[in-house]
Amino acid sequence: MGTDIIHNNIRKQRFESNEMTQQELADAAGCTRQTIVALEAGRYTPSLGLAFRIALIFSKSIDDIFEYQVD
Question: I need a labelling partner for 22 at 20 to 30 A (CA). Which of 10, 36, 65, 69 fits?
């Protein structure tokens, strides 16, 4: 079995949402700005709950925000 890799387009979604700041997204999602920074940089894999909250904030499905890939 390979390594799980999760890509995201959170940064793109923030800018398409009236240039939402990382802090605004963090506040809405119930996490820290540092978590959003790490997510956008691909250094952190979100919990399922956080992934759902982020998708709901942007009125998108999880698949619209996150892409799962096995290496």
Answer: 69
